[in-house]
Amino acid sequence: MKLFHSPASPFVRKVQLVLIETGQSEEVELLPVSTSVTAPDSGLVASNPLGKIPALTRADGPTLYDSRVICEFLDSRAGGALYKGGWETKVLEATADGIMDAGVSMSYEKRLRPVEKQWDDWLEGQRAKILGACAAVEARWMPTLNGPLTIGHLAMGAALAYIDFRHPDAGWREGNPQLTAWQTAFESRPSMVATRPEVA
């Protein structure tokens, strides 16, 4: 199997975390790719018509894309432990993915649009999504995050790390002491350390 890969992508990182935690890293080759909405990679588009990462090519089936599809496939392939929490686990994963979506949208606005065309209200709206999601996790999901490892843990770890990486002034820690403590501890997990991006 081959995984289209960019080290800064939180969605790719989530897949990498699943690979490490399920012991499948050695079975997947990373294919470095530089792609964006305005400059899609042709090799990636040939495998994923949406031109988005992550995308996982397989010898025995069509390319899988969307991180949730890939992660559930990999988990099932390894015996299916990460999704045992059922819908609760999937909602937590979706919340983390929403944080990632908002963070990536902010990154595109800041990095791809000329400064004079950047939309401050759009950026603030995406930031509000991040803060709202974090407040919801603080109020509702900490018992899950403090329990056995699930896909929710891996998704939330990747999501919050991405916000710290790209948007350190987002302020998600304010009013969320439990989630802050959890993320601080989770950052030291070997899989998180191994997948920490070094690119700017």
What is the multimeric organization of the chains shown? single chain
H and E string: EHEHEEHHHHHH
The share of residues in helices is 55-70%
Number of alpha- plus pi-helical segments: 8
CATH class of the largest domain: Mainly Alpha
CATH topology annotation of the largest domain: Glutathione S-transferase Yfyf (Class Pi), Chain A, domain 2
Strand order of the largest sheet: 2-1-3-4
CATH architectural designation of the largest domain:
Up-down Bundle
Query: Largest sheet at a glance?
Result: 4 strands, mixed
- Category by helix and strand content: alpha+beta
Percent of sequence in beta strands: 5-15%
What Rg, in angstroms, do the CA atoms define?
A: 17 Å
N-to-C span:
28 Å
Structural notes for this entry:
The protein is of the alpha+beta class. It folds into two domains: 2-77, Glutaredoxin (3-Layer(aba) Sandwich), CATH 3.40.30.10; 87-189, Glutathione S-transferase Yfyf (Class Pi), Chain A, domain 2 (Up-down Bundle), CATH 1.20.1050.10. The chain contains eight helices and four strands. The chain has a four-stranded mixed beta sheet, with helices on one face. Helix 1 (10-21) runs parallel beside helix 3 (67-77) and helix 5 packs across helix 7 (177-186). The model has no long low-confidence stretch (mean pLDDT 92).
